[in-house]
Amino acid sequence: xxxxxxxxxxxxxxxxxxxxxxxxxxxxxxxxxxxxxxxxxxxxxxxxxxxxxxxxxxxxxxxxxxxxxxxxxxxxxxxxxxxxxxxxxxxxxxxxxxxxxxxxxxxxxxxxxxxxxxxxxxxxxxxxxxxxxxxxxxxxxxxxxxxxxxxxxxxxxxxxxxxxxxxxxxxxxxxxxxxxxxxxxxxxxxxxxxxxxxxxxxxxxxxxxxxxxxxxxxxxxxxxxxxxxxxxxxxxxxxxxxxxxxxxxxxxxxxxxxxxxxxxxxxxxxxxxxxxxxxxxxxxxxxxxxxxxxxxxxxxxxxxxxxxxxxxxxxxxxxx
Length: 320
Fold this sequence. Notes:
Elements: E1 6-8, E2 30-34, H1 39-50, E3 54-59, H2 62-75, E4 80-84, H3 90-103, E5 109-112, H4 130-152, E6 156-160, H5 183-207, E7 213-217, H6 226-229, H7 235-245, H8 250-253, H9 255-262, E8 271-276, E9 281-286, E10 288-290, H10 296-310
Parallel strand pairs: 2-3, 2-5, 3-4, 5-6, 6-7, 7-8
Antiparallel strand pairs: 1-10, 8-9
């Protein structure tokens, strides 16, 4: 896998290293986080709840979500709730969005965090390659169904991408990796899709005159369950060694997500991540974007393909 040339987005302001102590009071604000029962999603939930935010843990396993919610409720006095959401099932995504809408009238930050990595060649119940279907298409539909609630709060969509978006350009001709499947190749495709979706979404929000914004981020290289639940063969052994030598803890890996979701300094259309060791770890700052991720023609093509695959046409309207 070749790594593309990458650069910091020129329109995004530089800022001093940021820490969570810089968060404002988040009382009364709602943060909906997918895949938040463990890893960086759970750590982001802890930090946001500590600052006063109300949290919805939207997870595939409701039992695991309830365990995580119990831990948060014991530590913080904010409202913590759970929601069953399987991003690998479009039916589950629609049901979860309906349930969330019945509970809440607005969303201050919709955080698309959940993901799976380097799985065997499997398909979702809707026939999509598992990683693209879960990491991108499920979130694409989820966000489209709820964007009006984000708009009502003048809130943010946060999309969690990855350093691996740099490895390969988008392949829309074999988007489901049917002709040439590797676990890392499909994972790269899904995380590049996340980033390009984020850029195109913010562009469309701006052009529609909406108050909602979209911000992307990545956690660097963080020690989480992601490295052990999907990869097989030599990969788990490699990740075990890399975790020991290079990884930062999940709480630090969650800081770019927190920054994108709630920091006043975060800018729309930006991409944030750790700043040390080639963005593997360290304080939050402006992350580098691969040149192939800045192809606006492919942003549009990916959007159109995604709408077709999930059978959903987005409607972007400013709140009245």
